[in-house]
């Protein structure tokens, strides 16, 4: 790793042994943080926090879509085009998806709608993964739909949230990311920020 290698250019001897040890320790942490698995979460050595960016979250959720599901055994539903937004105030992730509902025997044409879903986060210790939790429907937007389908669309949105978002893994820590200098660490508080999710790392 070029970054880690360049860090070990120790200052001249007159800079002091303590300073050199501090720089080496910092570089070791930076090199360690670069050993991520599926995505490269950034580690902040000063605050002991990992940050998973919004783009990394988008990349983690994207493989779930497009997805098809069956509703009430009569409607074919296709969910596609997920768009993420960070809800800092409620500490949740918002996912907006397009939904097309079709039944050639009942509907003259497919119903197109937009579902807004949200999820909290939790850490699953056995798998060392950060997962989506407590998905909920925030909004169902649809035009030109008979009133009798309104409640059914909300039920459909709830099913979609539970099926595709609940317990979905958005980041997995590698064992070496949670060990340093003979000490073991574990993710703690998870905080949603404007451009990503911050995960506190605390010593066990």
Helices and strands in order, then pairings?
Blueprint: H1 2-7, H2 17-33, E1 42-44, E2 49-53, H3 54-61, E3 67-71, E4 75-87, E5 92-102, E6 111-124, E7 129-142, H4 150-164, E8 169-172, E9 179-180, E10 183-193, E11 196-203
Antiparallel strand pairs: 1-2, 2-11, 3-4, 4-5, 5-6, 6-7, 7-8, 9-10, 10-11
Word description of this protein:
β5 and β6 form a beta hairpin. This protein has two domains: 1-33, no CATH class; 38-204, Super Roll (Bactericidal permeability-increasing protein, domain 1), CATH 3.15.10.40. The chain has four helices and eleven strands. The strands form two sheets. It has a six-stranded antiparallel beta sheet with strand order 3-4-5-6-7-8, sandwiched between helices. A five-stranded antiparallel beta sheet has the order 1-2-11-10-9. By secondary structure, the protein is of the alpha+beta class. Mean pLDDT is 79; it is low at 1-39. It has helices spanning 2-7, 17-33, 54-61, 150-164, and strands at residues 42-44, 49-53, 67-71, 75-87, 92-102, 111-124, 129-142, 169-172, 179-180, 183-193, 196-203. InterPro entries: DUF1439. Pfam families: DUF1439. This is DUF1439 domain-containing protein.
Supply database-style keywords.
6-stranded antiparallel beta sheet, 204 residues, 23% helix, elongated, single chain, disordered N terminus, Bactericidal permeability-increasing protein, domain 1
CATH superfamily of the largest domain: Uncharacterised protein PF07273 family, DUF1439
| Total number of helices | 4
The proportion of residues forming helix, as a percent range, comes to: 10-25%
Tertiary shape: elongated
> Quaternary status of these chains?
single chain
Largest sheet: 6 strands, antiparallel
The helix-and-strand class reads alpha+beta
Instruction: Please count the beta strands (DSSP E, at least 2 residues each).
Output: 11
Classified by CATH, the class of the largest domain is Alpha Beta
In CATH terms, what is the fold-level topology of the largest domain?
Answer: Bactericidal permeability-increasing protein, domain 1
Into how many domains do the coordinates divide?
Answer: 2
Q: What is the distance, rounded to the nearest whole angstrom, between the alpha carbons of the first and last residues?
A: 28 Å
Rg computed from alpha carbons, rounded to a whole number of angstroms: 22 Å
Mean pLDDT: 79
Strand content of the residues, in percent? 35-45%
* CATH architecture grouping of the largest domain: Super Roll
Identify low-pLDDT runs. Answer: 1-39
């Amino acid at each position: 790793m070029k970054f880690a290698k360049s860090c070990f250019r120790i200052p001249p001897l007159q800079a002091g042994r303590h300073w050199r040890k501090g720089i080496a320790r910092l570089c070791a942490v930076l090199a360690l943080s670069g050993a991520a698995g599926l995505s490269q979460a950034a580690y902040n050595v000063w605050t002991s926090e990992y940050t998973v960016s919004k783009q990394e979250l988008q990349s983690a959720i994207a493989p779930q879509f497009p997805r098809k599901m069956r509703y009430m055994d009569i409607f074919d539903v296709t969910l596609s085009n997920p768009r993420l937004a960070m809800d800092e105030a409620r500490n949740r992730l918002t996912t907006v998806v397009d939904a097309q509902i079709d039944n050639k025997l009942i509907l003259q044409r497919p119903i197109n709608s937009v579902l807004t879903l949200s999820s909290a986060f939790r850490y699953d210790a056995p798998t060392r993964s950060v997962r989506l939790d407590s998905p909920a429907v925030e909004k169902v937007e649809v035009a030109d739909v008979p009133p009798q389908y309104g409640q059914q669309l909300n039920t459909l949105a709830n099913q979609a949230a539970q099926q595709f978002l609940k317990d979905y893994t958005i980041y997995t820590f590698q064992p070496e990311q949670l060990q340093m200098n003979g000490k073991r660490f574990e993710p703690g508080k998870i905080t949603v920020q404007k451009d990503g999710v911050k995960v506190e790392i605390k010593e066990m």
